[in-house]
Amino acid sequence: MKSVLGKLIQQKFGRERYTTYTRKLNEKESMDIFCDIYENLRCQSEEDLNDALRELLGSVQTSIRISKNFLYISLGYFVAMLMLLGLHLMVPVFAFASGIISICYLYKFAEFIRNRYCDRDVRIVLIYKIALFQLLEETCLQNEGNGV
């Protein structure tokens, strides 16, 4: 299971580059990552860069939403378990129902942990954002220089 931000980087640049970027982060070669991302984005139009920025912001919002909603998911899990206990169900029925609820909760917990503590993905996304902003700024300056 990948974080939302890791999936975005893999979608944009491929799995091999993502692996290379994580290796370069471990070696503290962030400038190499920036240069590679910059060169990949440089040939794109302003509209494509704006779309990429919107997609990036959407992924960041999704990542934040996962973290925010986890409290409500946890509360829902505990309320559901209390309700099952309060219903005094037969043991097999209780075991099945609590097992299903627990599996769902564990999935959401794993998703929360993966998105909450994905430091390397956050660092790569920040480099990606800086490259996007740099290219958009250059594009705007070129447009102003051309009188557009």
Q: Over all CA atoms, what is the radius of gyration?
A: 22 Å
- Could you report the average pLDDT, rounded to the nearest whole number? 92
Which structural class best describes the helix and strand composition? mainly alpha
Distance between the termini: 45 Å
Describe the fold and architecture.
Helix content is 86%, strand content 0%. It has six helices and no strands. It has helices spanning 4-13, 15-26, 30-41, 46-86, 91-116, 119-145. The mean pLDDT is 92.
Structure in a nutshell:
The chain is 86% helix and 0% strand. It has helices at 4-13, 15-26, 30-41, 46-86, 91-116, 119-145.
Layout of strands and helices, then pairs:
Layout: H1 4-13, H2 15-26, H3 30-41, H4 46-86, H5 91-116, H6 119-145
Helix pairs in contact: 1-2, 3-6, 4-5, 4-6
Descriptive tags:
single chain; 148 residues; mainly alpha
